[in-house]
Amino acid sequence: MVVSMEQRTHRLTSERLVGKPVKIEEGYAEVVLQTTEEMAVDEYGLVHGGFTFGLADYAAMLAVNEPTVVLGKAEVKFLRPIKAGEKLTAKARVEEDLGRKKLVKADVFNERNEKVFEGTFHCYVLEKHVLE
Fold it and tell me: Residue 32: CB partners within 8 Å, gap ≥ 6?
């Protein structure tokens, strides 16, 4: 693990379901997810897109790395199918810092470094926790 900053948000996130942080820097994060058979939706081993989205979303939250960050909107493209057993890496970078609103670009790559997913995440840093 090459995490150079303290993880300040989403600390209870399941590594098994949405990945493990491997790098957290100011405005940037990388998260790795080992996909499993449990994530497959059919006999071919196609991984449900929700896991890929969750991985990218988690990386986006860590790129912002504020305790009260939430996702407000996402524009995404699924570019390639994922087969159970593949290791995925999400790379997220804050592209625009508009105060409490951050636009984060997140890309997910497979083991062959092929881009399988791309998205723009509209993240908001709230004054207090969303459930308070």
Answer: 19, 20, 22, 87, 88, 89, 90
Size (the chain), residues: 132
Residue 109, class by beta-carbon neighbours within 10 Å (0-12 exposed, 13-18 middle, 19+ buried)? middle
End-to-end, the C-alpha distance of the chain in Å comes to: 32
Instruction: Give the separation between CA 80 and CA 82, rounded to whole angstroms.
Output: 7
| Tens of pLDDT, residues 5-16 | 899 999 999 999
Do the strands 101-109 and 87-98 form a parallel or antiparallel pair, or are they unpaired?
A: antiparallel
Mean pLDDT in the chain?
96
Distances (CA, A) of 3 to 9, 25, 125: 14, 7, 22
The pLDDT value given to residue 73:
98
15-125 classified as CATH 3.10.129.10: yes
Predicted TM-score (pTM) above 0.85: yes
**Token pair of 106, please?**
């997140």
Contact of 108 with 55, CB cutoff 8 Å: yes
